[in-house]
Design a protein that fits this description.
The chain has 270 residues and is α/β, with parallel strands linked by helices. It has 11 helices and 6 strands. It has a 6-stranded parallel beta sheet with strand order 2-1-3-4-5-6, with helices on both faces. Helix 7 links the parallel strand 4 and strand 5. The N and C termini lie far apart (42 Å).
Amino acid sequence: MSFNLLKGKKGIIFGALNNQSIAWKIAEKCFEEGAQIVLTNAPVALRFGEINELAEKINAPVIPADVTSMEDLSNLFTKSLAHFGGPIDFVLHSVGMSMNVRKGNPYTNLDHELEHKTLDISAMSLHRVCQTAFQLDAMAEWGSIVSLSYIAAQRVFPDYSEMADTKALLESIARSFGYHYGLKKKVRINTISQSPTRTTAGSGVKGFEGFITYADKMSPLGNASAEDCANYCVTLFSDLTRMVTMQNLFHDGGFSFCGLSHAVIDQMEK
Ligand SMILES: NC(=O)c1ccc[n+]([C@@H]2O[C@H](COP(=O)([O-])OP(=O)(O)OC[C@H]3O[C@@H](n4cnc5c(N)ncnc54)[C@H](O)[C@@H]3O)[C@@H](O)[C@H]2O)c1
């Protein structure tokens, strides 16, 4: 069912790798709600080719950009402005990569060169995206920028490793840039702290199946799916949430405020 919440809006979506990606579901939902979209991903990710399937479905051009390159980002925003023939109403930053988790390095034995890369790709890139848009004056007034986070920014999830620190930085950047962009142009910036979700990035975390099942049992509503996340994201891109900015918004079926649940107690007593 569509409510036309994004009718006439134009947005850039980072991070649709395959049809499991949260960004993929968000792109589909934004299109259903009437938005025009530009898709982007790292050149290496585009080589797998799956994004073209989505691009065709939602009639969106694909403009490559490595989020660690200011040159790529500047090219992306400049080309998107030309494509839309006007300013951008929303941006989804759905990008994550943990170099140390990929290498299997535990938190107590991180390779700090790799950690630099993780921070650059997964957190500083939000600053790079915001700064590029800010300096090109690319966003429309009351525009909306959303990035995806995880509750490991506030609580310890041991195998989430360096990504916990990365998400803490990401959320801080959303707050800090949200202040400056709010003043300049009433652009709002928020992070959505999403339930664990089966995707390429998510499944890289050690013990992911246990992780996702535990979260589901701890949440009175159960885990939020990628489709649920897409619906929530649409509201944040819409005009119905104009006064929400600089927030980390939990989208997790209640997990973040549950100390214990009957489902988990029952499991322990078995
Ligand atoms: N899956 C989960 O359990 C979960 C939970 C909470 C938050 N998140 C966050 O959601 C976001 C999206 O992840 P996902 O789970 O959909 O997985 P995904 O693997 O589908 O998406 C990650 C995306 O990041 C892109 N990327 C990596 N390096 C890049 C670079 N240098 N330049 C541009 N793009 C680059 C990848 O190509 C991919 O499209 C991430 O920030 C992730 O941390 C995921």
